[in-house]
Write a structure and sequence with these properties.
Blueprint: E1 2-7, H1 15-30, E2 33-37, H2 41-46, E3 49-51, H3 82-92, E4 96-101, H4 103-114, E5 119-123, H5 139-160, E6 163-168, H6 175-184, E7 188-190, H7 198-210, E8 216-220, H8 248-260, E9 264-268, H9 280-298, E10 304-309, E11 312-317, H10 318-323, H11 330-337
Parallel strand pairs: 1-2, 1-4, 4-5, 5-10, 6-8, 6-9, 7-8
Antiparallel strand pairs: 2-3, 10-11
Helix pairs in contact: 1-9, 5-6, 7-8
Length: 341
């Protein structure tokens, strides 16, 4: 078979390890041939591909980003659609597609599968918000990067006796904030799943200050303060119609400073969390998922994605993968909240 691979949506540590795992197993075990669509769905719509021989994936598991490039192209817009993609696949002799991406990518893959295309998915998101998999590759790396950055902010806060607010990614879930906040010893963790009033946040900050600490607050970009109806978003919508979040830390900082009298600084970590080399955990998980995706192709499990269930890789339908957002359960937050203040 000739298999096309694409990486779509936000880049993420571990993407190259997925490509390597898929190509190595596909060639060594099944004798498949591989091409890569350049820049995500754009390459699929335009038929823009490169060959992926075994030599091309040598040593790439440790590299961040993606050798194929990525974009947030919607395959149903800009002269795209199932008929165009089918024609491109026939012209290029491509039998099936492995789509590596997050919620938007997999939603598009489902629509195309429903239209008759042969596609399997590999879940990718640093946010760890896909309900059908226990962990997504990239999440562990993002937490590691965020934790290191927050550790550095803490030393500045302690030197200047300031409150430091670190904003991390996560969109509408608080997994990165929860894990990085617990790892760095934050005095308050603010996540979308749990509302907290400014009065409560103030009490946590003052409690830390009164114990001689420099208060540290970790906030997820999708956190909604009590009294507000939606996350802070001032950068419009992405190509899939979703709001671009970010900047809540900058709103919280002056409010906290006014309430506490403590000099307060905000740092938005942003895209630094998605860059750099993947952790060992993410390299292994991504490699296993790439290899399992080849099994999905061989077994013709179209319309499914590979998933981590405990320590096993399983196959689940796109419907299950896209049905629910995997949010932080209340008991996990309460577990962390014991350490606040």
């Amino acid at each position: 078979m000739k298999i096309g691979i694409l990486t779509s949506g936000g880049d993420c540590p571990g993407l190259n390890a997925v490509i390597r795992g898929a190509v190595l197993k596909g060639i060594a075990v099944h004798g498949h041939e591989f091409v890569g669509f350049l820049d995500g769905w754009r390459g699929v719509v335009e038929g823009d591909v490169i060959d992926i021989p075994r030599a091309l994936v040598r040593g790439i598991a440790k590299q961040g980003g993606t050798i194929l490039g990525t974009s947030r192209t919607n395959p149903f817009e800009n002269n795209g659609g199932p008929d165009v993609i089918k024609a491109n696949m026939q012209r290029l002799g491509i039998d099936a597609i492995i789509a590596i991406g997050g919620e938007g990518t997999l939603a598009a893959a489902k629509r195309l599968t429903d239209a008759g295309l042969k596609i399997v998915g590999v879940p990718k998101t640093v946010d760890n918000d896909l309900d059908a998999t226990d962990y997504t590759f990239g999440f562990d790396t993002a937490v590691e990067i965020a934790t290191e950055a927050i550790d550095r902010l803490r030393t500045t806060g302690e030197s200047h006796h300031r409150t430091m607010i670190a904003e991390v990614m996560g969109r509408h879930v608080g997994w990165i904030a929860l894990h990085a906040g617990m790892a760095s010893g934050a005095h308050a963790i603010l996540i979308p799943e749990q509302q907290a009033s400014m009065e409560q946040i103030t009490r946590w900050v003052l409690s830390a200050r009164d114990r001689g600490r420099a208060p540290l607050v970790v906030v997820a970009e999708g956190f909604v303060p009590e009294g507000q109806e939606s996350p802070h978003s001032e950068r419009g919508l992405d190509t899939f119609g979703r709001p671009r979040l970010g900047g809540i830390a900058e709103l919280l900082a002056p409010e906290l400073e006014a309430r506490t009298g403590i000099e307060t600084r905000a740092t938005v970590l942003g895209h630094i969390q998605r860059g750099g080399v993947p952790t060992a955990f993410d390299r292994v998980l991504a490699t296993r998922l790439g290899m399992a995706a080849i099994d999905s192709v061989v077994e013709q499990r179209w319309g499914t994605m590979v998933s981590l269930n405990g320590t096993d890789i399983v196959h689940v339908g796109f419907d299950a993968a896209l049905g629910n957002l995997k949010s932080v359960p209340k008991h996990r937050y309460e577990e962390a909240a014991v350490l606040f203040g």
